[in-house]
Amino acid sequence: MSGAGSPDFFCREAQRLGYVARSAFKLLQMQKQYKLITPGASVLDLGCAPGAWLQVACQSLGPLEKGGSVIGIDIKKVKVPSSHCDSRVRAICLDVMNLLRDQVKAMSPQERGFSVILSDMCPPVSGITVKDTALSCELGARALSLAIGRVLLPNSAGDNIAELSDNNTDADTNEDGVLRQGGNLVIKLLESEDNAAFLKFCKQRFAKAVWLRPKATRSSSREIYLICQGRRAVGRCVHGGLQRAVASHWSPTAISLIKSSLYKRRAYPPAVSSLRVESVQTMEVRMDEKWKLSRKRGGGEAKRRSTAESLSRRCGSLVREQRAKFYIMRRCVVMLLCWRD
Ligand SMILES: C[S@@+](CC[C@H](N)C(=O)[O-])C[C@H]1O[C@@H](n2cnc3c(N)ncnc32)[C@H](O)[C@@H]1O
Q1: From the CB of 68, is ligand 1 less than 6 Å away?
Q2: Is-contact 51 80, C-beta < 8 A?
Q3: Least confident range of 53-62, 211-220, 233-242
Q4: Does any ligand 1 atom lie closer than 6 A to the CB of residue 245?
Q5: Which of 55, 137, 237, 239 has its CA 20 to 30 A from that of 198?
């Protein structure tokens, strides 16, 4: 193959134009279509090695006198490429899964956060679809939570899975993200039915959120980019509506896979899972209860208490039932993944 769209074409073009990897063309296409990085922007590039996005991001900042900065982070050591990059670009070797929002904010200009966050992070491909997808989902969710603050992942069954949250995000006391209001976010994910939850979630938090499969993506790859533009002010997100919208889209399989700590045990030894999973359904029940209670204020204390008790009994049994289902499903998946002939 030799035409545009073939892997050879983009490799050759990257070499010819001085980019360190063909991935440069993915960000170039995003820039052309969405103008994510404006002159003088402050850019955070998660998973930046070998540095092609650093090059494109720096070019997009415009001339040096316009200012701006690009901070790249990768679990691998990365040297800032000499071509297309200038003194505004810095690369740091760190595991994003272990980073706290305060630490990331401290890296931004005047500690005011970033105007653009790019995540091209992906786990080493194992070839086991379900495992690769779960790991990519975890990296994507970490990028999202660094950008916009704590991410609540509801499940479709509506059970209480709050106890599955782990210790890493408990240390992340900064509830707000490091993406400035009006800022743009790009997240790479592998195609999966669970991606609909990402999209719905981001549509509530950004003025615009769309999928893009860049032309430079290899035909064998399942990667897809979520492009989010114009982060809304925190107070302007409709949480209840958002959570209800997402609740029906996050499959129990995805959550149990993520929480079975594949990441910790099998893929990247130093990484720590950092997703906080909370029960959105439980929050809705509480909200509904409050709403009902406020409407029934004149209806008597006893009736109110009995409604609340029966609700909490029903929730309790739902939680137990779903927890058992989760456990069985998780064991099955772990057995399948550990299967050796
Ligand atoms: C496809 S490459 C990025 C290519 C880059 N955008 C470019 O254009 O040169 C994905 C990168 O994500 C990095 N990565 C994966 N997991 C990471 C993690 N937990 N923390 C930081 N970087 C990670 C990998 O080391 C790898 O370099």
Answers
A1: no
A2: yes
A3: 233-242
A4: no
A5: 55
Ligand 1 centroid – CA 49 distance (Å)? 6
Quickly state the pLDDT bin for 332 (edges 50, 70, 90): low
CA of 127 to the centre of ligand 1 (A): 18
Q: Single out the residue of 151, 163, 132, 197 nearest to residue 326, CA to CA.
A: 163
Query: Tokens for 145?
Result: 């939570």
The CATH code of the domain at 7-279 is 3.40.50.150
48 lines ligand 1 (CB under 6 A): yes
Tell me the CA–centroid distance for residue 188 and ligand 1, in Å: 10
pTM of the model: 0.72
> 52-103: per-residue pLDDT in tens?
999 999 999 999 999 999 999 999 999 999 999 999 999 999 999 999 999 9
* Ligand 1 pocket, residue 44 CB under 6 Å: no
Cis peptide before 214 (omega within 30 of 0): no
Task: Tell me, in angstroms, the distance from the centre of ligand 1 to residue 62's CA.
Answer: 25
Asked if pLDDT for residue 216 goes beyond 90, the answer is yes
Each residue of 26-37: pLDDT tens digit?
A: 999 999 999 999
Domain extents for the chain? 7-279, 281-338
CA angle 252, 257, 242 (to 5 degrees): 45
CA distance linking residue 142 with residue 251, whole number of Å: 18
User: The tokens of 232 are what?
Assistant: 């809304």
